[in-house]
Amino acid sequence: MSELGSLIYTPQRAGGEAVSKVESHTPRIQAPDKVGKNTVFKVRVEVGPHPNTVEHSIRWVELYFKEDGRAFNPVLLGRFVFEPVYAEPAVEVSLKLGKSGRLIGVAYCNLHGLWESSKDIKVE
């Protein structure tokens, strides 16, 4: 595992004090399990409930796609920056995919670091 990869928490890799942060820091990806090829569909990514102050907040979320059979992965689908106090860490995007793969969400908390989750999606 790369050095950066070892610094990203997931529900499976959280240990010690990080275990208590899993529910409030792990991105939740809401998307259909199956979609039509090149058909537009919605994906929602949200984090929380989580404090939203200047001192402690989710600053950004990135959404990636690891496409089956692609030589170089992942594809960055979007980066969403949230201003503390004013913006809540939730976003909805419209996507269309030509191949199956895995959506990967990464969130950054200014106090508790990087958190990741994923969801497989099948294209029919």
TrEMBL record:
Pfam families given in the database record: Desulfoferrodox
Ranges of residues in domain Desulfoferrodoxin ferrous iron-binding: 20-117
Origin organism lineage: Archaea, Thermoproteota, Thermoprotei, Desulfurococcales, Desulfurococcaceae
Record SUPFAM superfamilies: Superoxide reductase-like
Protein family (similarity comment): Belongs to the desulfoferrodoxin family.
Protein name: Desulfoferrodoxin
Superkingdom as given in the UniProt entry: Archaea
Record-level Gene Ontology MF annotations: iron ion binding; oxidoreductase activity
Keywords: Electron transport, Iron, Metal-binding, Transport
